[in-house]
Please model this.
Amino acid sequence: VQLQASGEAWCRRGGFLKLPCAAFGIIFRLSPMSWYRQAPGKERELVATISTTASTDYVDSVKGRFTISRDNAKNTVCLQMDSLKVEDAAVYYCNTFLGRREWWGKGTQVTVSS
Model:
Protein backbone atom coordinates (compact mmCIF):
# COMPACT_ATOMS: atom_id res chain seq x y z
CA VAL A 1 0.00 0.00 0.00
CA GLN A 2 1.30 3.46 -0.88
CA LEU A 3 -0.15 6.85 -0.09
CA GLN A 4 1.50 9.53 -2.20
CA ALA A 5 1.27 13.24 -1.44
CA SER A 6 3.39 16.23 -2.41
CA GLY A 7 6.42 17.02 -0.30
CA GLU A 8 5.71 20.59 0.63
CA ALA A 9 3.31 23.49 0.16
CA TRP A 10 3.46 27.13 1.08
CA CYS A 11 0.87 29.83 1.49
CA ARG A 12 0.33 33.23 3.03
CA ARG A 13 -1.97 33.68 5.98
CA GLY A 14 -5.57 33.90 4.78
CA GLY A 15 -4.81 32.04 1.60
CA PHE A 16 -5.70 28.54 0.50
CA LEU A 17 -4.05 25.26 -0.39
CA LYS A 18 -5.27 21.93 -1.69
CA LEU A 19 -3.44 18.77 -0.67
CA PRO A 20 -4.02 15.68 -2.81
CA CYS A 21 -3.11 12.15 -1.76
CA ALA A 22 -3.16 9.27 -4.24
CA ALA A 23 -3.62 5.75 -2.91
CA PHE A 24 -2.19 2.59 -4.43
CA GLY A 25 -2.59 -1.02 -3.45
CA ILE A 26 -5.93 -0.74 -1.69
CA ILE A 27 -9.56 -1.01 -2.71
CA PHE A 28 -9.94 2.71 -2.41
CA ARG A 29 -13.73 2.90 -2.44
CA LEU A 30 -13.82 0.60 0.59
CA SER A 31 -11.18 2.56 2.50
CA PRO A 32 -11.88 5.33 5.00
CA MET A 33 -9.37 8.12 4.51
CA SER A 34 -8.02 10.74 6.88
CA TRP A 35 -5.63 13.65 7.13
CA TYR A 36 -3.54 14.16 10.24
CA ARG A 37 -1.06 16.90 11.06
CA GLN A 38 1.83 17.35 13.39
CA ALA A 39 3.33 20.70 14.29
CA PRO A 40 6.80 20.99 15.89
CA GLY A 41 6.69 20.04 19.55
CA LYS A 42 3.09 18.83 19.35
CA GLU A 43 1.43 15.47 19.05
CA ARG A 44 -0.02 14.29 15.78
CA GLU A 45 -3.70 15.19 15.58
CA LEU A 46 -6.54 14.01 13.41
CA VAL A 47 -7.65 16.89 11.19
CA ALA A 48 -10.31 15.42 8.92
CA THR A 49 -11.76 12.08 7.97
CA ILE A 50 -14.02 10.84 5.20
CA SER A 51 -15.80 7.54 5.29
CA THR A 52 -16.49 5.12 2.45
CA THR A 53 -19.92 6.73 2.15
CA ALA A 54 -18.32 10.20 2.01
CA SER A 55 -19.48 11.35 5.41
CA THR A 56 -16.95 13.73 6.91
CA ASP A 57 -15.72 14.90 10.29
CA TYR A 58 -13.27 17.60 11.32
CA VAL A 59 -11.35 18.75 14.34
CA ASP A 60 -12.99 21.87 15.76
CA SER A 61 -10.09 24.15 14.88
CA VAL A 62 -10.58 23.64 11.12
CA LYS A 63 -14.37 23.36 10.85
CA GLY A 64 -15.70 25.76 8.27
CA ARG A 65 -12.24 26.26 6.74
CA PHE A 66 -11.09 22.81 5.62
CA THR A 67 -12.89 20.36 3.36
CA ILE A 68 -11.94 16.73 2.83
CA SER A 69 -13.15 15.02 -0.32
CA ARG A 70 -12.56 11.79 -2.20
CA ASP A 71 -12.59 10.75 -5.83
CA ASN A 72 -13.05 6.99 -6.00
CA ALA A 73 -12.45 6.99 -9.76
CA LYS A 74 -8.98 8.49 -9.25
CA ASN A 75 -8.17 6.80 -5.92
CA THR A 76 -7.47 10.23 -4.49
CA VAL A 77 -8.37 12.06 -1.31
CA CYS A 78 -7.95 15.83 -1.07
CA LEU A 79 -7.82 18.32 1.74
CA GLN A 80 -8.92 21.80 0.71
CA MET A 81 -7.62 24.31 3.23
CA ASP A 82 -9.06 27.84 3.14
CA SER A 83 -8.47 30.89 5.31
CA LEU A 84 -5.18 29.45 6.46
CA LYS A 85 -3.78 30.53 9.78
CA VAL A 86 -0.19 30.52 10.95
CA GLU A 87 -1.14 27.83 13.45
CA ASP A 88 -2.16 25.53 10.59
CA ALA A 89 1.51 25.13 9.68
CA ALA A 90 2.51 21.51 10.22
CA VAL A 91 3.41 18.32 8.42
CA TYR A 92 0.20 16.86 7.03
CA TYR A 93 -0.15 13.10 6.68
CA CYS A 94 -2.57 11.10 4.60
CA ASN A 95 -3.84 7.97 6.36
CA THR A 96 -5.98 4.91 5.85
CA PHE A 97 -6.60 1.71 7.75
CA LEU A 98 -8.02 -1.77 7.31
CA GLY A 99 -8.81 -3.66 10.47
CA ARG A 100 -5.74 -3.28 12.66
CA ARG A 101 -3.45 -2.34 9.80
CA GLU A 102 -2.72 1.30 9.18
CA TRP A 103 -0.81 3.13 6.45
CA TRP A 104 0.64 6.61 6.28
CA GLY A 105 1.85 8.89 3.54
CA LYS A 106 5.30 10.44 3.92
CA GLY A 107 3.92 13.82 4.88
CA THR A 108 3.50 17.22 3.29
CA GLN A 109 5.22 20.16 4.95
CA VAL A 110 2.75 23.06 4.98
CA THR A 111 4.20 26.48 5.73
CA VAL A 112 1.95 29.48 6.36
CA SER A 113 3.65 32.86 6.40
CA SER A 114 2.25 35.84 8.27
Remarks:
- The two ends are 37 Å apart (CA to CA).
- The chain has a mean pLDDT of 94.
- The CA atoms of residues 70 and 77 lie 4 Å apart.
- The first strand starts at residue 2 and ends at 5.
